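Q: What does the assembly look like in three dimensions?
Context provided by user:
Components: three
Sequences:
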Amino acid sequence: MKHLTNWGSEAGKHIVLILGALVVILPFYLMLSFSLKSPSEIQSISGGFFGAQEMMTDHRCLKAGRSNEECTMLPIVYNYKAAFKEAPLLRYLLNGVIVTLSIFAIQVLIALPCAYALAKLKFWGRDVVFGLVIFCLLIPVHAIALPLYLMLAKFGLTNTFAALVIPWTISVFGIFLMRQFFKTVPDDLINAARMDGMSEFSIVWKVMLPTAIPALLAFAIFSVVAHWNDYYWPRVVITGDQDLMTPPLGLRMFKSDMDGNEYGPMMAAATVIVAPLVVAFLLAQRRFIEGITLTGMK
Amino acid sequence: MSDIKLKGISKFFDNNEVIKSLDLSIANGEFITVVGPSGCGKSTLLRIIAGLESQSSGDVIIDGREVNKVRASERDLAMVFQSYALYPHLSVQQNLMVPLKLRRLSSLERLPLLNWFLPKRRSKMIGLNEKVLQAAETLQITHLMERKPGQLSGGQQQRVAVGRAMVREPVAFLMDEPLSNLDAALRVHMRAEISELHRKLKTTFIYVTHDQAEALTMSDRMAVMMDGEVLQHDTPSEIYNNPVNLKVAEFIGSPKINVLPAESDSKGKITCMGLPISMSLQTQKQGNIMLGFRPEHTELISSDSKTCFEGKITYKENLGSDIYLHVNLKDGQHKMIVRSEPEKAIDAKIDDIVKIGWMADKVMAFEENGQSLPTESKS
Amino acid sequence: MGHSRSHFWFVSPAVILMFVILILPVFVAATFSFTDYNLGSSDFRWIGWKNYESLGKFSSYKKMFTASLTYVVIVVPISVLLGLGSAMLISSLRFGGEFYKAIFFLPVMATLLAMAYAWEFALDPVMGVINKFLDDGCSVGWFYKLITGTWLGFNPTESWYGELCSDRMPNWLGNRKYALGSISFIGIWQAFGFNMVLYLAGLTSVPRDLYAAAEMDGANSTWEKFKLVTWPMLGPTHVFVVTITSIRSFQVFDTVEALTRGGPSKSTYVMVYAMFEKGVKQNLVGMGSTLTIVFLGFVLILTLTQVYFINRKVHYS
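A: Here is the predicted structure of the complete assembly.
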């Protein structure tokens, strides 16, 4: 229906949306802004977005007996330096990367062959297995956290890298998603590969995987975002070993370690943790939105 | 009297001129078909009349009143869509009620369950229900009233769509290829039903289709549209017998008209592929022209007459009631399709040599650019 | 076919993991819910239904149910409606849609814990921008009158905002009256972008012709077309969005653990936090397991309700 654009109502829509956008952006703005400001500016909510960027003196550093020169610096430098020093922020980030990538890699290793078998191979019990997958989709992750923690504790596996990764290795969602996708691959493609003498194993990785790149990409995004941001499970299972903390957990640790009012460094740390995904999102919006909304398409 | 006039309608999509300065007059109560190949702009034209699209320039005039600025819901026109566009979540009965409720009841009255408080609503609703029932009876869908569109067949959905248009008793019905999604047999049946409906209601029907058979059988008048222009606007028989140019002649009539090159001398005598044609042009014109022979105006000749085309059969279509022979003419360059009685051509085989004659008074002449040339037949 | 028994090797790891990681724990939790097992002590007793009974007896559990259910009841409708509203606004824009879409989707992507801390600062009673904004607003004539309802005839000094202006702006996260509301607000902030994207997808699948038919039938205004076409055709999307949002709302944890730790006075003592506190922090595995099973029950009910609705009412065939 083509009516002439009603500029009045168009403007009205934009006003409403902009107001909403302001509310949505507020915490991001604050986070970034505080990471650039000196403590006094933070306390008094002054200085605009960037802060005055006047040289500030780090009192704690002075107390620790260092010279005035060493302890005077720009707020932004102070905040980010403190963030990386006070907490092993780099370590946390590294942990985050290793954990999310390991989880995804193992998920693919387990899910892809299973999805292929469910989609393309006929065997006794296939429907039972698929029914099992559907059943497991109903189980929310928070419901199994406590018992899993118990089981891991019994084996002395809490506070380990394995503990962070193992519960996520089975992604029924991934199996379901890839199966749906694999079903659309023409049988002839697979039969041709078989005639060429390919083993079923090779078929999974050399034939099915390349065709599934779009779905895999969406799944990757979904998995990486979910596990980078995951706070609950690491909180349950990592109780002492700071070296193993994932970014959110590390941030939490940082906050409770910090005395008093080190808001600047806190927000600097928060910015560093949130930034990678946000930047990646802004660069590849469509893919991200696809990936995240796939959660729902159960 | 509610007639509809289009004056100078043109429409651009980006820089594409989809409709080119079109004029059309539609009389009150007539059944007019706008027919043309896909992409010629006919659906767009219909939507412009409806008000769902706005024209780039020109006027739509309904009943002497210019309605360019009037929105679709207020033009008192009803439309039947190719996809039927029935509300999937409502039953047939509710679908039929929608246009009545939206127009005859105020927004307060439209809230459900208020019969108690608004006695006027009660009587209004009874009146509306009667109208719906009437329409359903006319279309023979009373037994389907409680079903949802998803539970109906294509033909039944189509009737409900027509019913939804009917209940409003609009000034004109606009139909956008309503039969395209039905199978062939049902289509023929529905053609008759729609014509019957038109006779009963006596309302203007503006019918858009790409099927020239529908246009020929159903319309009072047809507008043949190609590339955004109306080429000819006349009764079906006029368009069939006297197409205004070659494009119209080729579009109307199935199978397609045979076109052969010919020459006309200064006296207007015509020769085609070396054969004299007993027909001359009304206006003297010397030069190359084209002649059109409709397959149904040709026949196989067995005699040794000299004035006939000769050629070899390449394909034979036996439709039971007619046989169509595809013939490659002797000169090796041109082809013809010839219609023959089943008895005559029953033994014809591929690669047979045949002689083709034609009905002298049915030959059509065209200039090289396609314009038709008036002729007189001599015989 | 005649291929190898490769399917066995393909499927077994997944099946084994499904049992060990997903199914077994449920039974473990069910079993322990009938005990008073304490992680750290070496023995435990069967106590039957006692744990379940204490759910009804102790006020802290009553507050838990209240907090969880209140949170869900606040967050779900508002984030669903915001999601729908923003989707409709954005899809009807001539330009700029992608921009707003990206902004509204950001909260879904950003690490909730980090953003929760940012909100904590914003909501800080002394240093937070929100209170500063509200405070400044007390002296801005039109704003003050708007929020206190003076224009509607109410007495400003008796209104909520008026009292705050004369006294002090609230301690959002530290005040029992406002804590759950604040947590809910953050939850809505985080969730509605997700719903928006789902509704955007739903809106594009509404057949265009239906709007044309509605117009021809006399549906003049956006509101009429919304009632007749948009809302009904979004049926499947509605069920879906509401269920997903509800399940995720039941699972709220990050904001509570980071900002209020269940308080003040257990006003934000949501179910998953209780599970965590009892089972992990206090090592009361028995009780924690009981809470786990109850939680599982709620989620199952929600999911199965969705399946029921999808199969019955919403697909029109």
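Follow-up: Chain A has two domains: 7-79, 89-293.
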